[in-house]
Amino acid sequence: MKKSAKIFLCLTGMVVVLIIIGIINVISHLKKEEIKEDYKIGQWYQITPEGAVDSVGNQWHGLIKLGKENKVVINFYGGGVSINEDTAKEGDDFYFHSIGDDDFAQFIGISSDDKNNPLKDWTFINIPYCTGDWHIGTNDFEYTDKEGNKQILHHSGYTNFQLMMKEVLKYVDNPETVLVTGWSGGGFGASFLANEIFTVYYPNAKNKNVLVDAAFLLKDDWKMIAENVWKTPKEISDRFVSNNLVLDSLKALSASHSDVKIMFLCSIRDEELVKYQSYLDDGNFEATKEKGKKFESNLKIMVDELLKLPNTVVFIWNDKNNNTDLTAHTVTMIDFVNAEYNGVKIPDWVMNTIDDKLENYGLELFE
After folding, report:
1. What pLDDT digit, counting tens, does each position of 267-311 carry?
2. pTM for the model
3. Which residue of 142, 151, 218, 339 is 20 to 30 Å from 294, comparing CA positions?
4. Does residue 166 sit in helix, strand or coil?
C-alpha cells in the first residue's frame, strides 16, 4: 500500500512538472511568435506594437488567432481597476499590473480552442489588461508607493488598444459579423470601446454584437476619475453622465448604432463586484450578505434600464453560496463553453442572440 502511494505521488509530481514545463513552453513560444504574412489559420500569434506598455512600463502585447469564418471576436481581458493613489500603490490587490498576469489566458474561457466552443472558427483579437484603467487610459499617473518612493502607473489601456487595432487591420479588415466582449474589467472596456470599433474599425459589419460580462459598479464621480486619473479621451468620458458608466455607454452605443445587439451577463450577487462596490462606497474591500443584497437591488435597477434599449437582452444567473449568500464572478473568463444555468447554456444564448433570437433569462431571480 505504501509503495503504491509513493508511486502515485511520484507520478503526480511528474505530471505537475510536465504541466508547468508545458505552460512555460507555451508562454515562451507566444512571446517569440509574432504574426507575419504567412500566418496559419487557427494558430495564436502575438502582436507587439511599438509604444505599448503595461502599468509598470514593460512592453505590452496583444494576441490574435485568424479563423476560418469571416467573423471576429474582440475580447477585452479584465483584472481589477485603479482609481486613485491609494489603489495605485496596492498593485495586484486591486489590479493586474504586469503583462505576465495575462499570458495564456487565450486558452481558456470564450477564446478557448475547445471543440464544443461555437466560436472556435472565428477570428479572435484578444486585448490583455494590465493598466488599471478599464482599457480607456492614456495617462502616466504619478503616485508614492508604500516605501515612500515616487512611481508612475502607466494608464495606457486606450493607447495600447489603438496601437493594437492599427496592426490588426492589416489582417482583419472587413468581417461580416463582429462580437465585442469582455469579462470583468474587460466588460467595462467592451461597453466603452464598442462604439469606436463599430464606427472607426468595422463600420461595414452587417451583424454587430456586444457581450458585457460582470461589469457593474456605481460611483458618482466616474467622469472625474476618467478625466483626471486615466486621461480618457473626451469622446468617451463625455458619455459618463451618471453614477453608472456602463449603462451610460451602452445607451450611447444603442443611440449611435441602432442595429447593434447588446447582451449583459452577471450573477445576482457577484462577490468580486460586491467587494469593489464596497470599496467605492465606504473604503472597505469586503463582501457581506448585506452588501450582497444591496448589489442585487442596484443590479435590478440596471437591468430594468437596459431592457428599455432596443435589441438588448440579459442573462442573470445564480450559484449562491449558502454560507455567504454571494455568487461567482464572470462566465466568459474561465469556462464559457460548459456554463449552464437552469438548463440554458450561456454559449447557446450568445449564439442565438447573434442569430437574432433574443431572449432574457434569470429575471425571476430578482423576485
Report:
1. 999 999 999 999 999 999 999 999 999 999 999 999 999 999 999
2. 0.91
3. 339
4. helix
